Protein: ornithine decarboxylase
Organism: Methylobrevis albus
Amino acid sequence: MTARIREFLAARRPEGPCLVLDLDVVRDNFLSFRRALPDSRVFYAVKANPAPEVLSLLAGLGSNFDCASVAEIEMALEAGATPDRISFGNTIKKERDVARAFLLGVDLFAVDSIAEVEKVARQAPGARVFCRILCDGAGAEWPLSRKFGCEPEMAIDVLEAAQQRGLAAYGVSFHVGSQQGNTEAWDGALASAAEIFRVLGERGIHLKMVNLGGGFPTRYLRDIPAVEAYGRSIENAIRSHFGNRIPETIIEPGRGMVGSAGVIKTEVVLISQKGGADDMRWVFLDIGKFGGLAETMDEAIRYPLVTRHEGAASTPCIVAGPTCDSADVLYEKTPYDLPITLEIGDEILIEGTGAYTTTYASVAFNGFPPLQAYVI
């Protein structure tokens, strides 16, 4: 938590749960990525936090943008990015959205199937496409499913089909899983990418780019490697698998760019127990899964919770949100140690919440308003 955030909360005293995001941290994170991976272009994953202030700052610093929808493309353009700095990175796109993006000047599209290639070929003739391949995500706190990507062998057919349909087969992409703690996780995927480059090269199709994806973590309760460690490992893996024929590379940090920049202020609404023999305390907050903390699903992300009682004796507590939905429980499988002296009305600061919170918040479930956000 930065001094600027503490000062803002002390001076403004906003009511209700809110996110406060410090742009100075975003700037520092961007510069760290640029230093750690100087030969890779940064494509910020807009979905992590599309606040206009964040996009404008990054556009001014020279960032590119990975967009998942036409709306995100329009946000990036409004923030000052030019179309050549935008990738339509979602592999599941409506054909009319491909057409709209192409009309706006975007000519870089992700695919993972021949059916998607055909849509792009019809609506964005001559565009560049890169094929996403599956990655096991071992070492990630939030491994990604098989929803996106295809087997590396299939990617060869997909990119060959793209070239045959008048598109430019441009490269390969992958994602090693969100909150990836293993700095070596990129090695296996880069080996697969290099083999795809080799096979297609023998067929006269010369790919140019490897999209290294995201996965760069934010510090929550556990320490994480420095971004420089990721940079060294990725550079070594690229040189190992590609030799002297180094491709263009891009990275798509989202959580690693904005996660550490944000803090959510929440309030304790109720502290209770469920029966005389049950000594487990339930702590209910005025924010839960539906208010922006969806990433606590399956307790995948365990955010640091800071109270005014730091240093006091603690006890395991079940932490839940305020809504009338039994799924709105944040931490129960592994209860969270909270101070015994915690009281109803106390504020709790949830750190590391700059990514995937405001955009996950429901519009008005149970009548609760969307998560308020302040960018400073």
